[in-house]
Amino acid sequence: MPGGYQLARGERLISNESFKFSLSHWWLKTNISLTNRSILWERPNLILGSIPAGRQTGNIPLGQVGSVTTNREFSIKRLLIGLLVLIIGLNISQPILTILFVLAAVILLASLFQTTMVIEHRGGPTVLKATVTQKTEIEALSNRISQTMADDQ
Asked: Within 13 Å of residue 136, how many CA atoms lie on the same side as its CB?
């Protein structure tokens, strides 16, 4: 369970999912748990969008959720930085540095697309990210959350 959360009396776990945060950060996971009372989540914090710096956790009561949507995003910033790193790498005369720059560019360009799940609630939107390859899984979780909200009413 994200953040070491303990289920309350009468609360039951419906779904416990883990998603890769991005292809360039394959070791970082976004964890989302759904209970009959709340959505619990834990996601990585990144400095400048690329340096891991801890984790953020949250708990959203289902009664406060207005909607859950999924989206596929394209990062123009990663495209531009990736192309710049690639161009620099191809113009370096030292083979080792060329390989390192090209590898960094490939990692940046591989993570251009991300799938996001946006949970609109009273406290404002919460955006949880996953790789584009997990689009189907995050959409299925979004549907389970919507169904659990509907069943609760």
From this structure: 1
